[in-house]
Amino acid sequence: MQRRLWCALAILCCSVVCSFAAPDKPKDVDRKEKLVVILLDGFRWDYVDQQKDKESLPGFRLLHKEGVRAKWVNPIFPSLSYASWTTLSTGLYAENHNIIGNYFHDSYRKETFELFNRTLTSNQRWWQDVEPIWTTATRKGRKVGTFLWARSDIPVRGILPHQAQGFQLTKGATSLGANLDKTIKMIKSEGYDLVMVYNEHIDNKGHQFGPTSPELMIALQEVDAELYKFLKKLDDTDLDETVNVMIVSDHGMTSGTPHSGAEYVEIDDYLDMDDVSYVIDRAAVAAVAPLPGKADKVYKQLKQMRGVDVYRRDDIPDNYYYKNGRYVQEILVCAKHGFVISGADSPKQIPRDPSTPRPMIWGGLHGYDNTHPDMRTIFMAMGPSFKKHYQGEPIDLVDIYQIYAHVLDLEPQPHNGSWSRVRSYLTNSASFSKVLSWNPILMTLLILLRYFI
């Protein structure tokens, strides 16, 4: 009964938001522009500029010349993959879409979400809170395909894209090239309107070797080669006249090696594991679930830990847009810049790193708060909807979703983005000047209702 009441109130509030903030209807109802979104995981905002040879990276240089780019994109908190992928797909902060990290736990249902466990991440219940862009587009009659993008292979309210491939581990840039070749065929011959492609090659090398390593630069060149071939094929087939291409990423990367100055701190040096149910994640951020009656003791112990900020749930900074998430635990430990949380050597640690060597050293890592410069990421685009040779001011990750909706002539779902930050990138933003977004007062009302119902 309570759940039904919550749903009814949420729908009512969303209806009020829609009535005040619905976008104007574009005049051209037969708009034929297509959209390809390429998500390059772990692409730090300054990677292209690190290349000293200005003739290198012809794909990205072509995008800069013929399209638009933001100076950088501010990430969400936490700057972790699954949370950020869901923000890119919905325009919502983590506390509003409830995919709050790569690892989290539902204490009520005793269910866990784990990055590399496809069975656990495919639990349909995680994905029914909000509607991603591929669901909206499919529901509105667009033909949609996805390659390796989050859990786009899980139905949302019974709807799946026409071709849906969810996240699974891949290596190298060749899979990107193969999927971009398929994308050309899908758009040219099979009538697809939206294709979303994911690749993790740059992120993998960043984690393994670090963000300033030669190996990372080689990975960047390999991804660029596939991107350049794709852009040239669009041009050779005249698809560039109707196809818009957006290059996005989820977060940046910072160095994790002791040589770079990173300092590792063992969480179980400051924690009696007999006092907790579990510790979720590590590196940049860890969530701690104390046993009943142990919260004060655990909090005081963790407050002695160097190089971190420790928060009770209610004290988590508001500008993280995190603490109202459904699966947030009682205590949150956030590593300061230059520090790395080493996970507990215990079965209560999720995930559990190898017992040797201790600590496990990362070449590069992410997840830090959204003020860390190394967590900044990218936005680039080209095509008939975008200006040429234009660099705009920084935008936020939550802003990107509404651009998909604009290009595809779709009414967006309620989101946290700001139209004023992105409209300058577009050739025609007038028809979308009233963007559908969460009214802050109604958002607060919804959050409060969840606790009182």
UniProtKB/TrEMBL annotation:
Keywords: Signal. The keyword Ubl conjugation does not apply. InterPro entries: Alkaline_phosphatase_core_sf (IPR017850), Phosphodiest/P_Trfase (IPR002591). Transmembrane segments: none annotated. It holds the Pfam family Phosphodiest. Residues 1-21 form the signal peptide. This is Ectonucleotide pyrophosphatase/phosphodiesterase family member 6. It comes from Daphnia magna.
